[in-house]
Amino acid sequence: MVRPSLRIKSIGTKVSEEEYAQLERAAQTEGKTLGEWCRGVMLSSANRRPPKATETGGDGHALMAELVALRAILLNVLFKQAKGEPVTAEEMQRLIDRADSDKLRKARERLEQASGTKES
User: Do 90 and 72 fall into the same domain?
Assistant: First the structure.
């Protein structure tokens, strides 16, 4: 059985109260300690890999994008039905295509709104 290497080195940094709270929330979202979460994010960055949504504790762009698209489709279908209009197969496909075309942009906007920041 191979023993994992021991973690004996430490890295520290200073953050503001607000930054600390943001980092703590991100870690809690993943059910990790702040140290575990930070280690995962730093190692992903050092390896030049984007952190997995499960490592970043809140990124979740793909999941948010699918939810945004599903919401757009559902609201459009419900609106048509409320007006008594049928939804044809062609119209349904058009709604799906339209929702898929901008779901990533809309998801990014919603995540930025929720975190109170804007990506450059």
Answer: yes
